[in-house]
UniProtKB/TrEMBL annotation, chains A, B:
This is MarR family transcriptional regulator. Residues 8-139 form the HTH marR-type domain. InterPro entries: HTH_MarR-typ, MarR/SlyA-like, Transc_reg_Sar_Rot_HTH, WH-like_DNA-bd_sf, WH_DNA-bd_sf. GO terms for biological process: response to stress.
Length: 143, 143
DNA sequence: ACAAATAAAGTTGCACGCAACTTAATTGCA
DNA sequence: TGCAATTAAGTTGCGTGCAACTTTATTTGT
């Protein structure tokens, strides 16, 4: 009888836990901006693509399919953060583009990364190396 | 204008991505057992507590509240994996206990950790140290 | 040129996760 | 003792994630 089936031994459980902890950590700050956690991650991409980005490209950066993104973006459109317009050169494609309201929201979010970083108790070097380790894991698993 | 608001710089995004990747990695194997990913994590705890465990204690090990756990356990009860019985000495408490079917399912799960470990491309040492780093992070964040 | 294959986005249905709340039982304290 | 506070579990409502599917548009091969 191996003890491999122990919760404490499982990497997957730590990732499951940490992700939930992160959500809960961000939730109250994001609530002030009127954003959920996945919406915030989407905004991080959109703030780097103010000229607009297709749902497909947004999804590939967030690793989300249209089944998740379409309703999420629809809610953000209702909030007035972005517009969704079909591309005239290829009517299959929908371009997501931040409104003025969506763009200026970035200023209210500037303080968040620093604040969250402080809570992790990591040094910048430790954060950097952990990020690289996790990136390697992402590559290995997603091949 | 800082570049802290970059998706690629965010630890939270890596944890978000990796957790989803883990779910997708486990999903097909767990489907053979008729389990979802959170149900599998619950089974890991229950296999270590065949004498039974309260919903509260199970929740504290999984870091889940009754709002999530109650319906999840109800579904697993329907599947015949466990029973839920109110404790006679304290009628507030519900004891979750695996059925025979739930207990013997462990045998079908024995191969999973090894299989999943192989995919990570980690050495045992690397896995160990990563687990410790993540544990430290969990402690720092959840205080 | 045109039918088959492919691609992009959206819809549906289900299982979480969690905030906010309700219900029922137990504890604690004046 | 009696009643307020606390505790355990469950319910409700909403926002993801994702599988499976549909719809519409474009591309590909002959």
């Amino acid at each position: 009888m191996s003890d491999n089936l122990l919760l404490e031994k499982q990497l997957c459980f730590r990732l499951y836990s940490l992700n939930k902890l992160m959500c809960r950590l961000y939730a109250p700050i994001l609530k002030e901006l009127g954003l959920t956690y996945p919406q915030y991650l989407a905004m991080l991409v959109l703030w780097q693509n103010t000229e607009g980005i297709s749902v497909k490209d947004l999804g590939s950066q967030l690793d989300l399919d249209s089944g998740t993104l379409s309703p999420l973006l629809k809610r953000m459109e209702v909030q007035g953060l972005l517009t969704r317009v079909r591309q005239s050169t290829d009517e299959r494609v929908v371009i997501v583009k931040l409104t003025h309201k969506g763009i200026v929201l970035q200023q209210s979010a500037e303080h968040i990364p620093g604040e969250m970083f402080a809570v992790t108790g990591l040094t910048p070097d430790k954060l950097q190396s952990l990020n690289l380790e996790l990136d390697q894991l992402i590559v290995n698993i997603s091949d």
